[in-house]
Amino acid sequence: MKIREAITKIKAYQAGKPISEVKRELGLDDIIKLASNENPYGCSNLAKIAMKKAVEEINLYPDASNFELKKAIAEELGIKPSMIFCGTGSDLLIRVLCSIFIDAGDEIVMGDISFQRYEDSAKIMGGSVVKVKMKNHHLDVEGMVNAITDKTKIVWFATPNNPTGTIVKKDELLWAIDRIPKDVLIVIDEAYKEYVTDIDYPDSLPLLNNYSNIVILRTFSKAYGLAGLRLGYGIASEEITQYMNSVIGPFDTNLIAQEAGIAALKDKEFLKMIVTKNAEGREYYYKEFNRLGLEYIESQANFVMVNTGVNDIDVFNKLLRKGVIVRPGSLFDMPGWLRVTVGTEEQCERFVKSLEEVLKG
Ligand SMILES: Cc1ncc(COP(=O)(O)O)c(C=O)c1O
User: Fold this and answer.
1) N or C: which terminal CB in the chain sees fewer CB atoms within 10 Å?
2) pTM (2 decimals)?
3) Of ligand 1's atoms, which has the minimum distance to the CA of residue 221?
4) Where are the domains of the chain?
5) Which atom of ligand 1 is closest in space to residue 91's alpha carbon?
6) Smallest Cα–Cα separation from 224: which of 272, 259, 187?
7) What CATH code would you report for 5-42+269-360?
């Protein structure tokens, strides 16, 4: 048996601790999970109805072309369906992009505190990762452009960025894409796009008219509340879309996901409610962190990074024992910090109360 060398160097992704695991390990019943940036309000009722209906046809393979789902997304965005590819979460699409663009020895450029899966996916292909130091918790766009070499195949802009929650502003993005060579792929990962309230956030779609080296990634996992279903999509030139479709498996978007996605897009009220509640939740966190004298990063997503000023693993474990699951910053090379998802009002209050108790120790 001969495992490819690149694979031997990869560690499994450490996801947020599942509620069931904490129940088992700590014997607790009342647990809240604010660790994986999930939607605390569930998903749209229209999506639930569509999913139940789709169960009746679950003996059939899904439509391999995703015709109706692509049509629905295309109508929503005002673009051609031939510029859309779908898959089992944007996580899969990140891996497929790397499998198309990265050979052994190639490089990707990303922020040093950004989404881990860009690194893992490049390494699976034998690529290496150039990490550019963050600038005041923001992606250093200029530094990233300057880090491009002849070996660079992909530049990753997560905006809002996970875990910092900060965005790449319109003028920065335009500046960067003008300077990035045309044979380098620019991925704009907009997993948390719907939550953004900053007016300087760019509308990336029109950029596709002038730049054939851009891919935009989006997901139904966050604001649409369908993380467990695994549904993401990308938007790119027809040429890139064709390559993506030839690598993505024919049935990588399951039948229930296709129907739920179509229905979720129709439920504008749900999305509006989620975005409003999330913005209120962020403000609540800021107010409470100010009261507690804790440093935090203003976020455009559905999570906030807060600096506990002490050992984050210790705080994480103490919060766990109180039934509150968050993500310790050490995982992201931000020791002392915690990343906490914006939950319901009640969940946010419970987190703040628990954190206060832990820190007063
Ligand atoms: C920046 C970013 N991109 C992509 C993803 C992947 O999301 P999914 O695979 O659920 O679509 C995540 C998930 O946390 C993320 O934070």
Assistant:
1) N
2) 0.97
3) 10
4) 5-42+269-360, 45-266
5) 9
6) 272
7) 3.90.1150.10
Secondary structure (H, E, C), 97-157: HHHHHCCCCCEEEEECCCCHHHHHHHHHCCCEEEEECCECCECCHHHHHHCCCCCEEEEEE
Whole-number Å distance, alpha carbon 90 to ligand 1 midpoint, is 6
Residue type at position 36: S
Q: How far apart are CA 216 and CA 188, in angstroms?
A: 5
Task: Give the Å distance between the CA of 357 and the centre of ligand 1.
Answer: 31
Distance (Å, whole) CA 137 – CA 166: 7
CB contact at 8 A, 141 and 168: yes
Calculate how far, in angstroms, residue 270's C-alpha sits from the geometric centre of ligand 1: 20
In short, whether 227's Cβ falls inside 6 Å of ligand 1 is yes
Mean pLDDT of 5-10: 90
Dig out the tokens for 4 from the structure. Answer: 């490819």
Q: Taking the CA atoms of 132, 164, 100 and 178 in sequence, report the sign of the dihedral they define.
A: negative
How many other CB atoms are found less than 10 A from the CB of residue 203?
8
Topology annotation, domain 45-266: Aspartate Aminotransferase; domain 2 (3.40.640)
At 251-304, the pLDDT tens digits run 999 999 999 999 999 999 999 999 999 999 999 999 999 999 999 999 999 999
- Which residues have CB under 8 Å from 105's CB, separation 6+? 126, 127, 128, 151
**DSSP annotation string for 57-83:** TTTSPP-TT-HHHHHHHHHHHTS-GGG
C-alpha dist (Å) from residue 198 to 245, 265, 286: 33, 22, 16
Task: Name the one residue in this structure whose structure tokens are 């150039």.
Answer: 130
